[in-house]
Design brief:
The chain is α/β, with parallel strands linked by helices. The chain has 17 helices and 27 strands.
Length: 534
């Protein structure tokens, strides 16, 4: 689908389009509740009017700490209609991380869960908010308001704010497609977390391309079990399903629950990172579930092991896409071709979507020949313009011609597909040789009995750095290190084979299912300090 073909101005315009064409079509399934697009639009409009009553201005930031649930989407579309910017907070972020996001964004309001997992968020925010002077309004979702001056979301949604409808229409007319809609904070693994400010156009154009590439439509049913403070839950599935006028089943990720929901609601499109698929395949009763409704599988976030891909095709659905997604491009930007082979899905993330541009550059930002490793840069209407309130970091990552330099390293292979070799910050040098952990991890994942692995560089007096691999074996498997090393010689040059091996029952993971190497590196730093080597 092209950008000019029916492209609307604001993300919420696509919600309105669904109401015009299919008002009783189901927008969300949440537990036993089914919400039509008409009901979705009504709730979003009511919240938009309430926010105008509060005095929320165009460009004001509204923070949220929410799991995939209807209230997140009511806030999303309400902000779209009044020109506010929503700001995501992770459900497992530390108090200091949350405090940073609230202060950096200067959020004037906070929408937070009552409880989730082991957390009582109201207790936590009672400690956090005294250090966040910009926050004037607090709303509790999914439970009663216990904090002083906080209000229950359910209570405010029982009010009548229809007198603000004229003001809402007036405000809506003042919003440009280039105005900001959501700030998604990066992990901060290279320093201070960076708030990627996405516009309506950024999100709409990314989603239109995704719909076209995956052939998605109004009759599709997606499962949205990804974090809403991440592009996975907010744009790649959340916004894309709305623009397609599809149905979303909302549920925080749980391997067994995911399989139950696929069968119960006849999910047609499933998008996950490799670890999530692997966790589902490891369930002892995996084979009992019916996956016949699935017609599209999307894998993104990291290299997909061959065995994971093979099992996806054999047991779930043969139509698999491996994609590359980035916060700074508002979601997905590369796609493997329909019907791609297992080898292509395993080794590459396909080609950049034709509506966007990509190049591979050296340290001087000059284009390198095909086959040569370099930094990957992107340009196009889905690419953000700035990191919020970080002009120096913005200037270092974006050039005057609109190119974003990602810090990811890769090369274009003989078929024109992009092969990733890892983050530039993950690369380490052993005796003068550059080593990219993604390549080493890919080889290790081929060894029987390996469930998860992560390779990091460890400082070494003579070699500069040496490789250490953290391995989680498949339950019941024992891995012989010497046999593994011998196995790796078939795939890796000797200098690339890790020297240190650490076995764990688990590894630190993000909510999206990615291994948090930042925490492993911090662990190594502490270890070296104790040895007096830091």
């Amino acid at each position: 689908m092209g950008f000019t073909e029916g492209a609307l101005r604001l993300l919420s315009d696509y919600m309105a389009k669904a109401v015009e064409e299919r008002p009783d079509h189901i927008a969300f399934i949440y537990g036993d509740e089914k919400i039509t697009y008409r009901e979705f639009a009504q709730q979003a409009e009511k919240l938009a009017c309430y926010l105008l009553k509060l005095g929320v201005q165009k460009g004001d930031r509204l923070a949220y700490l929410l799991s995939p649930r209807p209230e997140f989407f009511y806030l999303y579309m309400a902000a779209s209609r009044i020109g506010a910017i929503i700001v995501g907070i992770g459900t497992r972020q530390s108090n200091k991380e949350i405090e940073y996001v609230l202060n950096n964004s200067e959020a004037i309001a906070l929408f937070t869960l009552h409880t989730m997992y082991e957390y009582d968020y109201q207790e936590r925010f009672e400690k956090i908010l005294p250090n966040c002077p910009s926050v004037k309004h607090v709303f509790i979702v999914g439970g009663p308001a216990k904090m002083e001056n906080a209000l229950s979301f359910d209570e405010i949604m029982q009010g009548d704010y229809s007198e603000y409808l004229p003001a809402l229409l007036e405000r809506e007319s003042q919003i440009s497609t280039h105005d900001g809609l959501i700030i998604v904070y990066t992990s901060g693994s290279t320093g201070v977390p960076k708030g990627a400010l996405m516009s309506h156009q950024n999100i709409i154009h990314m989603s239109l391309v995704e719909i076209g590439m995956c052939e998605a439509g109004w009759d599709d049913i997606w499962i949205n079990h990804l974090p809403t403070n991440h592009v996975g839950g907010a744009t790649e599935i959340g916004a894309t399903a709305i623009i397609a006028n599809s149905t979303q089943v909302l549920e925080p990720f749980n391997p067994a629950k995911t399989l139950e929901l696929i069968e119960k609601h006849k999910i047609t499109i499933l998008g996950q990172v490799p670890t999530m698929y692997a966790m589902e395949f490891a369930l002892p009763d995996f084979d009992k579930y019916d996956f016949s409704s699935l017609r599209t599988l999307v894998i993104s976030g990291s290299t997909a092991p061959m065995e994971t891909l093979r099992k996806m095709k054999e047991t779930m659905c043969d139509n698999v896409y491996n994609c590359l997604g980035l916060t700074e491009v508002s979601g997905l930007i590369t796609y493997t071709e329909k019907g791609a082979s297992l080898e292509t899905l395993h080794l590459t993330v396909g080609k950049v979507a034709p509506e966007f541009e990509m190049k591979i550059v050296d340290e001087n930002r000059q284009v390198v020949p095909p086959g040569q490793i370099g930094e990957i840069a992107y340009r196009g209407t889905s690419v953000i313009k700035e990191y919020f309130k970080l002009p120096e970091i913005t200037a270092a990552s974006f050039d005057d011609e609109g190119w974003f330099y990602s810090g990811d390293m890769g090369f274009i292979d003989e078929d024109g597909n992009l092969r990733m070799v890892g983050r530039s910050k993950d690369m380490y040098i052993t005796n003068g040789e550059n080593i990219y952990p993604a390549e080493v991890e890919d080889a290790i994942m081929r060894y029987p009995g390996v469930l998860l692995c992560a390779v990091v560089g460890v400082p070494h007096e003579i070699a500069g750095h040496i490789g250490r691999v953290y391995i989680v074996p498949i339950p019941g498997h024992q891995i012989d290190i010497e046999d593994l090393k011998e196995f790796l010689k078939e795939y890796l040059a000797t200098y690339k084979i890790p020297r240190e091996y650490v076995f764990r029952e688990s590894l630190p993971m993000t909510l999206l299912g990615k291994i948090e190497k930042k925490l492993l590196r911090q662990e190594i730093e502490e270890e070296l300090k104790q040895k007096g080597q830091a």
